[in-house]
Amino acid sequence: MGLNFIDEECMVCKKKFVEDDDIVVCETCGTPYHRECYRQVEKCINAEYHEHGWTFSEKHRKPSDILQESSTKSQQLGIDSIQGSNSKYNASEDNYDKVISVSNDILNQVNLNPNEDCSGVTLLEFYLYTKSLFSTKKFHKASKEKSKNVFNIWAFLFSEYYMVSKNMYVPAVFTFLIDFVITVPFLIWSSPDYIVNQVLDVFGSTTFNIVLAISLVLLAVFRLFIGYKTLPLYFKGCVSNIKAIKHSMERRKLSNHDFLKSLIDVRSSVNFLAILIVFMCSQIFNTYFYFLLNLFLSYLGG
């Protein structure tokens, strides 16, 4: 089934991969990276070798040798790599084929069957759609276990930010609002001393401390709930979208290859604009809350 990425080396930080590392893989050549490492370089380190056919599974062949082989072959044939618009089209088609082929190899390398059906879609379809080996492994594990709950530490710590990064906008809005309501006592507690003292004078320190403790428990329970439910909800949305794309392709009588190509074309980058909007909304809500709190306390004091 090929090699596992465990004990392979990330080409950015030079550290070996370990179990449960969040790994992303170049769609063209299959080179694995830590997700954060890939974000630093923003492209595959071996990009210059892609057009020459080098893949990570051929790592015993040096990329420099590939360039030499390609140059020698071109000289022997007396032709350029790409000629004219028709050749560009064929090169694009070849790239789709290569992405699909490399994706199959990547899944095999981590002992996943690309054609295995999970929740109505194959693992290859899910991987091509999400562009994430980490998510595909978690999806496979959740699909095969009786419990569909999969804990995610990032969803636990940064609930709404993680959701919008996965384009889960509606759940993110509800999570943001519930999170805000639960943390109101903490917002008061972290206010300037004169506001805290006024609140304690109105409600009493004992009552406020009880409310603060209840809020802490509710926040922990809510965050645990989100930590366990976010990935299954994300997986469900991915499966639904993949099936919708497939149904659209079948209705248009297009081939399965066209369907896989459409999954490759799906945008998968992190939506930093949505994350920024959530952050800005959080700041606006906090500011507006302090404004209303001051009005309320002024009314009571008056």
Kindly state the number of beta strands. 4
Described by strand count, sense and barrel closure, the largest sheet is: 2 strands, antiparallel
Q: Major sheet: order of its strands? A: 1-2
Radius of gyration: 26 Å
Strand content: under 5%
Order of helices and strands: EEHHHEEHHHHHHHHHH
Low-confidence stretches: 70-91
Share of helical residues: 55-70%
Q: Quaternary state, please? A: single chain
Average pLDDT metric: 80
Structural domain count: 2
* Structure annotation, total helices: 13
State the shape.
elongated
The assigned structural class equals mainly alpha
Q: Which properties best describe this structure?
A:
single chain, 302 residues, mainly alpha, 2 domains, two-stranded antiparallel ribbon, two-stranded antiparallel sheet, 13 helices, 4 strands, 3% strand
Helix/strand layout:
Elements: E1 23-25, E2 32-34, H1 35-41, H2 63-77, H3 84-109, E3 117-118, E4 121-122, H4 123-130, H5 133-144, H6 153-157, H7 159-165, H8 169-182, H9 184-189, H10 193-203, H11 205-251, H12 256-265, H13 272-301
Antiparallel strand pairs: 1-2, 3-4
